């Protein structure tokens, strides 16, 4: 060790190294606590959006990265609704085509008129009678 300005340089270096290790440990602890809290908020957001019909991964990403603001966004998003059946046909509605308006709904099919009953088939012809004997 040598002395520079009345201070032993080796002891200052040791002191700085010790303080750096202590600060590094505190930083690591704070980061670990943040990671656990962010994961819990991500799980919360995932559960909220999954109940609303949205992809669960979206809720996790919002909760993990945006934390409380992401949870608020998850609660504010409207629930997805399934396609409702049309009243006239009972068939589910198709989504509109890309870049245009949806075509008008098809009219319900009319039932064909009842056909008249068909007559029974004619009876087969009678077999020819044999000629009488002796005639």
* Widest sheet, order of strands: 1-2
Distance between the termini: 159 Å
Helical percent range?
40-55%
Average the pLDDT over all residues and give the rounded result: 78
Rg (CA only) = 43 Å
Detailed description of the structure:
- The chain has a domain at 3-76.
- A hairpin with a 2-residue loop joins β1 and β2 (7-8).
- With 135 residues, it is mainly alpha-helical.
- 47% of the residues lie in helices and 3% in strands.
- α2 (56-66) packs antiparallel against α3 (68-76).
- It has three helices and two strands, in the order ββααα.
- The longest helix has 43 residues, at 9-51.
Characterize this entry briefly.
This protein is mainly α and 135 residues long. It has helices at residues 9-51, 56-66, 68-76, and strands spanning 3-4, 7-8. The longest helix has 43 residues, at 9-51.
């Amino acid at each position: 060790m040598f002395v520079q300005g009345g201070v032993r340089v080796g002891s200052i270096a040791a002191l700085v190294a010790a303080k750096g290790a202590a600060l590094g440990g505190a930083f690591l602890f704070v980061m670990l606590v943040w990671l656990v809290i962010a994961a819990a908020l991500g799980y919360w957001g995932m559960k909220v959006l999954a109940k609303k019909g949205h992809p669960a991964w979206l809720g996790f990403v919002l909760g993990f990265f945006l934390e409380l603001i992401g949870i608020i966004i998850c609660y504010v998003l409207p629930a997805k609704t399934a396609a409702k059946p049309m009243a006239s046909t009972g068939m589910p509605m198709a989504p509109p085509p890309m870049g245009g308006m949806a075509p008008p709904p098809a009219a319900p099919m009319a039932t064909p008129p009842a056909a008249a009953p068909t007559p029974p088939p004619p009876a087969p012809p009678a077999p020819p009678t044999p000629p009488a004997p002796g005639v």
